[in-house]
Design goal:
7% helix, 5-stranded mixed sheet, 808 residues, Immunoglobulin-like, Neuraminidase, elongated
């Protein structure tokens, strides 16, 4: 059934719908998702039987009102003494379908196996436990993603006995490895694992492993958190420590009982007095709270818990950090059963990113007259289009990320504008019932520590007053403000600030610098607010930091010419160069779509540069680049295979290796902020226009295009009204590509597009020249305009003498 949902009071205005553009060829795989054993998003039922002849396990599927068997003879060849002790399902190989793990009782040979269904047939991916002693059996199984790689891991528990009592196995590229191989090694021989469960109790996006133990002294249950391949941390190490020695854990389950997006831990106990089951909620590393502490308290002493189950309501099939249930039904922030926040436009099979944008507005005359720092609709259109056209493949086969930019009633009460991506997704911006306009009075400078250091208005105070904390797990948050003080106490032209470890950021494109000039583009009245491209690019830049992108993509190395992204200060104002051979790649307002140069290490070694390979090794058509500005091109791929050159090409005064990066695949969608306050200093500051201009001039100098003109070799016939038509060729003899090449003469404008260094372009042109004395030639003036790789505009003037074929 198709589920539909109202957008509340919002209305769609169809007059502002972006034109779809071509989907770019970079492919990002969808996050592995729980889609069932066969990939149809139906949960199959696996049943295990005790020892005896014939079938030992089966798998049934319910469809069209009928149950049918996917497997009806599992374990039929096992010895009669062997039975199933545990079952678990999870996607270990990242193909989007679950695999089935099966545990067996004590005895020789295999003790557990992992089975994979494909096209109606089953394959054994793994079998283990052959070397265990005959008395050892699988006592519990669990599957979950403990290491955050998008694929599930398999946890195996064993009964009492010496040596290992639990393990965690990881499957990657056809091979299995142990990321925990000796759990419980130091336990007494009488202690074993009775139950296992996996779930995300701390909200970091990765599952934790909970294990239960049989009756005995000391702890009876533990919660382990994966750190890396060498270590795990205990976030609960003494659960049940004060229980009587006769009490143990009989069952575990993990799920989100309070609807806060994090899992809670339910545990069951064996027969005896007092409580028989409890539910625990993780608070922090040192603290757990008991949500339910006396379940089964009034049961008879002979009764105990034999099993527990909690449904998975925190599933996030599309991997966008938003639970599927929230995307479909809305978010109940306080657990009272009433939806508090809707997510208009959300789709659990497409990645969605929600951002609330509040903004400062000066309403009265003061030091600066009335003006608004609120983003213009055209700027948000540019930013939203970048996400909608992202080369990210969703679970439903569409391509793109659905942005939802909430500015409240800025463009009209209830107005929502749609942005169509070329791959079928629909983004939105407008009134999603959250964005606010904040009066600019006494808060012209905003930072993240308030009165500490350089005094300013504390961002956290503004956020607390204007952002609904019920949106914390759903929306990133930003304020379009006047100025910040990242670089200096006042008159700081820094364009924004994304503090470390948070899901909020600043955009600040207002005011003047210490020189008295506007920091950024001006509005119609001359106030600095940023032009459309500066607003859109800075929004994308600071949001990129929140999505874990650095100034160099995967690192903080700035000004890399091979990193074509708004994250790079050189291209922040939506000036990412567009490939002349693959239109739309990367293109103006965009994150990097390809690590350059492609292949190998995807890096430029400044001590060994191949000038003929440029930044892209020919794939995007940007051509050769004269890095050392010596007027010639050298390197292994140049004619004659000359030696490489050394040059500082990002202007940092050093020669290092500059790594390329593909941004869209490196975005991390999980949320980090759990409170309205809590902002910290540090983090990534936005660009300073004067600093960027200095570096841009320095790195652009060797790549300056230089265009020469060549006309016809033979006399050109003169037509009526003293006009001549001839083929005009422009050749680039400079150090780098010329973009948007335009030649103007006598009111005629000739567009030649991109001309790479050593390249040329030609076109026919018809020009008139002044009448006068009959002459055998005419001198024609030309104006040549182009831009370099970094967006600097270059103007040249040239005179071309053309021989004329005419009779006087």
């Amino acid at each position: 059934m198709t589920r539909s949902r109202s957008l509340g009071r919002a209305m769609l205005i169809g007059g502002l719908v972006a034109t779809a553009v071509g989907v770019r060829p970079v492919n990002v795989e969808p996050v592995a998702a729980a889609a069932g054993l066969t990939g149809d998003c139906r949960a199959e039922l696996a049943i295990g039987r005790n020892s005896g002849g014939n079938m030992r396990y089966r798998v049934d599927r319910f469809a069209a009102g009928i149950w049918s068997a996917l497997v009806d003879d599992g374990g039929e060849g096992w010895g009669d003494s062997r039975g199933v002790t545990a079952l678990a399902m999870g996607d270990v190989d990242g193909d989007g379908d679950d695999e089935l793990a099966i545990g067996r009782n004590a005895g020789g040979n295999m003790r557990y196996q992992v089975m994979d269904e494909s096209g109606g047939s089953w394959e054994q991916l793994h079998a283990g436990g052959h070397g265990w002693g005959d008395s050892r059996r699988v006592s519990a199984l669990a599957m979950g993603d403990v290491d955050g790689d998008g694929d599930d891991e398999l946890a195996i528990g064993r009964n009492a006995g010496g040596n290992m009592r639990y393990q965690v196995h990881d499957y990657e590229d056809g091979d299995w490895s142990l990321i925990l191989d000796d759990g419980g090694f130091d336990w007494g021989d009488s202690r074993g694992v009775t139950a296992l469960a996996m779930g995300d109790v701390d909200g970091d996006g990765d599952d934790e492993l909970t294990l239960g133990r049989n009756p005995g002294g000391n702890d009876r249950y533990q919660v382990h958190d994966y750190v890396d391949a060498e270590s795990w941390s205990l976030i609960l190490d003494d659960g049940g420590f004060d229980w009587g020695d006769s009490r143990g854990v009989t069952a575990l389950a993990m799920g989100d009982v309070d609807g806060d997006g994090d899992d809670e831990l339910a545990l069951g106990r064996n027969p005896g007095g007092n409580d028989r089951y409890q539910v625990h909620d993780y608070v922090d590393t040192d603290t757990w709270s008991i949500v339910l502490d006396d379940g089964g308290f009034d049961w008879g002493d002979s009764r105990g818990v034999t099993a527990l189950a909690l449904p998975d309501t925190t599933g996030d099939r599309d991997g966008d950090g938003l639970n599927d249930c929230w995307e479909v039904n809305g978010y109940d922030a306080d657990g009272d059963g009433t939806v508090d926040v809707l997510l208009p436009g959300a789709d659990p099979k497409r990645r969605d990113v929600y951002v609330e944008i509040d903004c400062l507005e000066q309403l009265t005359f003061g030091v600066e007259g009335p003006h608004s720092h609120c983003p213009r609709s055209d700027a948000l259109m540019l930013a939203a289009q970048a996400f909608a056209d992202a080369p990210v493949v969703n679970l439903d086969g569409t391509t793109g990320i659905q942005p939802h930019l909430d500015v409240g009633p800025l463009y009209g009460d209830g107005a929502i504008f749609t942005v169509a991506g070329g791959g079928g997704v629909i983004g939105t911006f407008g009134d999603l019932e959250g964005g606010k306009t904040i009066v600019e009075t006494g808060n012209e400078i905003i930072d993240f520590d308030g009165a500490v250091g350089d005094p300013a208005t504390d961002f956290d105070d503004l956020k607390a007053a204007n952002f609904d904390e019920r949106r914390l797990r759903l929306y990133r948050y930003t304020i379009f403000g006047h100025q910040t003080n990242f670089r200096k106490p006042a008159n700081d032209c820094t364009s924004g600030w994304a503090p470390g470890g948070e899901d909020h950021f600043l955009v600040t494109l207002g005011g003047t610098g210490t020189d008295g000039f506007n920091c950024w583009g001006s509005d119609a009245n001359g106030w600095s607010v940023g032009n459309d491209e500066q607003q859109a690019g800075t929004l994308l830049h600071e949001l990129g930091h929140i999505l874990r992108l650095g100034h160099g993509g995967t690192d903080s190395e700035n000004y890399k010419p091979n990193y074509l992204s708004v994250m790079n200060y050189l291209f922040q104002a939506c000036t990412v160069p567009t490939s002349p051979v693959q239109p739309g790649i990367p293109g103006e307002c965009d994150y990097s779509v390809q690590a350059l140069p492609p292949g190998g290490t995807s890096a430029l070694d400044e001590s060994a540069l191949d000038e003929c390979a440029g930044i892209d090794a020919g794939t995007l058509g940007f051509g050769p680049m004269d890095w050392d500005a010596d007027g010639s091109f050298e390197g292994p791929t140049c004619p004659g295979s000359t030696a490489s050159v050394s040059a500082d090409i990002n202007g940092d005064g050093d020669t290092t290796v500059l790594a390329g990066a593909e941004d869209w695949n490196d975005i991390e969608y999980s949320f980090r902020s759990a409170t309205v306050g809590g902002g910290v200093g540090g983090g990534e500051g936005g660009s300073d226009p004067q600093e960027v201009a200095r570096v841009r001039r320095r790195v652009a100098a060797p790549l300056r295009p230089e265009l020469t003109l060549r006309g016809p070799r033979h006399p050109v016939p003169v037509a009526a009204a003293n006009t001549i038509t001839f083929r005009l060729r422009a050749a680039n003899v400079g150090g780098g590509p010329a973009f948007d090449t335009t030649i103007v003469s006598s009111g005629v404008r000739l567009e030649l597009g991109t001309i790479i260094a050593t390249g040329s372009a030609a076109s026919f042109v018809t020009l008139a020249f002044p009448t006068g004395a009959c002459s055998e030639q005419v001198a024609l003036p030309f104006r040549i305009v182009s831009s370099d790789l970094f967006g600097l505009r270059h103007v040249q003037r040239a005179t071309l003498t053309v021989a004329l074929d005419r009779e006087c």
